[in-house]
């Protein structure tokens, strides 16, 4: 592997984030430590509802895909982004096996 193969998170000054419907709702978009699968399902279902009403969803989804973000972004979970071909920078568990 060369350094060219390693995805790098980009710093951002993106103005679209000012319009995010998820401001103040980080607890829905990022897991608590040791979150159980059922809790993740419930949390991500609530996050998806917020994203469905967000004015910047497609921009957000594109940003998260390009930057290999963790958490729930643009109506997509990490698993959904991974399935769409946008892997995490350091996948673990099932995602690491299929990366
Ligand atoms: S699409 Fe979802 S994660 Fe992205 S800014 Fe809007 S509410 Fe937040």
Notes on the protein architecture:
- It is a single chain.
- It contains five helices and no strands.
- It is globular, with a radius of gyration of 14 Å.
- It is mainly alpha-helical and 99 residues long.
- It has a domain at 36-99.
- 43% of the residues lie in helices and 0% in strands.
- The structure holds iron/sulfur cluster.
- Residues 20-22, 29, 50-51, 54, 56-57, 60, 73-75 line the site of iron/sulfur cluster (SF4).
Whole-number radius of gyration? 14 Å
Largest sheet: none
Strand percentage: under 5%
The average pLDDT value, as a whole number, equals 86
H-E string: HHHHH
| Strands, count | 0
Low-pLDDT regions: none
Bound molecules: iron/sulfur cluster
N-C termini distance: 14 Å
Structural class: mainly alpha
The helix count comes to 5
Morphology: globular
In helices, the fraction of residues equals 40-55%
Strand and helix layout:
Elements: H1 26-29, H2 37-52, H3 57-67, H4 78-83, H5 93-98
The structure holds iron/sulfur cluster.
Q: Quick recap of the structure?
A:
The chain is 43% helix and 0% strand. It is built from five helices and no strands.
Annotation keywords:
single chain; 99 residues; mainly alpha; 5 helices; globular; binds iron/sulfur cluster
């Amino acid at each position: 592997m060369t350094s060219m193969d390693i995805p790098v998170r980009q710093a951002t000054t993106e103005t679209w984030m000012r319009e995010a419907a998820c401001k103040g709702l980080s607890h829905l978009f990022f897991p608590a430590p040791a979150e159980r699968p059922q809790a993740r399902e419930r949390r991500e279902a609530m996050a998806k509802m917020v994203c469905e009403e967000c004015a910047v969803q497609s921009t957000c989804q594109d940003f998260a895909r390009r930057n290999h973000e963790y958490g729930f972004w643009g109506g997509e979970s990490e698993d959904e982004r991974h399935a769409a071909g946008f892997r995490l920078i350091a996948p673990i568990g099932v995602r690491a096996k299929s990366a």
